[in-house]
Write a structure and sequence with these properties.
4 strands; 10 helices; about 10% strand; single chain; alpha+beta; four-stranded antiparallel β-sheet; about 290 residues
Length: about 290
């Protein structure tokens, strides 16, 4: 007999891989349609593939496939068979999808004559996809596999090392292509990490409430029965009036936070609220411990 926990775990896996698939395909479109035709080379496997595609005989999609497969083999050799199932899935899907796009929708040049507009899409689409992947415990593979190997076998600062590799790839674009392409690639390199960080923070954003009130019961009832959340209460004393107060601590997503704030304004206008943003809430009902 299948337990509820097993069923929930299976449903969660199906949802995760559905999201991974959609995010990967979204990333592939951004890379193939906007990054490759403009020769944007802002780091990573696809950036290296763009440079190699210019100086050697194969296409950028082909080099992406070859490099990803080599890195997967290295991952299995140095990290073992279970070094990251989701990362393996994304790497293979990315490589296959890029090869399919090259076969099904060949592009002779950029989609438009506006390189800045295309750079925005070349940065935002893969960065948004990567942020979604990171948020569910996966990555786009590629240089992330190198990072895993370095983390296991060396004491090198991985972030710095990978950033330097990305910089070298971007610098090479200035010599392999032209200075304009190189400068666009530098802009893409600087924007990529900012977009990823901001998207991850936005996805995880929650509202942390500290509510000081003399009548906590209606507020807690609303939290429990209308928002299906919980709260923590402790007693306090006003420093000026020495009146007894109750402090309610609770965390909501953004939609629930609006409902709670409006409810308190209507029913407890004398309550004092402090509402803070938080992008890292760990515990039951939010993110589980890994």
């Amino acid at each position: 007999m299948i337990s509820v926990d097993s069923l929930n775990k299976w449903q969660r896996s199906v949802l995760d891989y559905t999201v991974l698939t959609l995010a990967t395909l979204f990333m592939v479109v951004g890379i193939y349609v906007f990054k490759f035709p403009n020769n944007f080379s802002f780091g990573g496997v696809t950036g290296l593939a763009v440079v190699l595609g210019q100086v050697l005989s194969l296409s950028a999609s082909s080099y992406t496939f070859i490099i990803n497969m080599v890195l997967l083999v290295l991952g299995f050799l140095f990290l073992g068979r279970n070094f990251g199932v989701k990362t393996v899935y994304v790497s293979i899907l990315t490589s296959v999808a890029l090869s399919f796009m090259e076969w099904a929708f060949p592009m002779e040049g950029p989609l438009t004559d506006q390189p800045l507009l295309e750079l925005i899409f070349a940065v935002v689409m893969p960065a948004l996809s990567s942020a979604i992947m990171f948020n569910i415990g996966a990555s786009s593979g590629g240089t992330d596999i190198i990072a895993m190997i370095m983390k296991k076998y060396t004491s090198v600062n991985i972030g710095t090392a990978l950033f330097l590799v990305d910089v070298l790839i971007t610098v090479s674009a200035c010599f392999v292509f032209d200075i304009q392409t190189g400068l666009f690639s530098f802009c893409g390199l600087m924007a990529k990490s900012l977009v990823i960080d901001n998207v991850i923070e936005s996805i995880n954003l929650c509202k942390y409430f500290t509510i000081v009130t003399e009548h906590p019961e209606p507020i807690c009832y609303f939290i429990h029965h209308n928002l299906n959340r919980s709260a923590t209460i402790f007693r306090a004393e006003g420093s000026y009036t020495h009146a007894e107060k109750e402090i309610i601590l609770t965390v909501m997503n953004r939609y629930q936070a609006v409902q709670l704030r409006n409810f308190i304004r209507r029913t407890e206008p004398g309550a004092f609220m402090m509402i803070c943003n938080s992008s890292e809430i760990v515990g039951k009902g939010f993110h589980a411990f890994n």
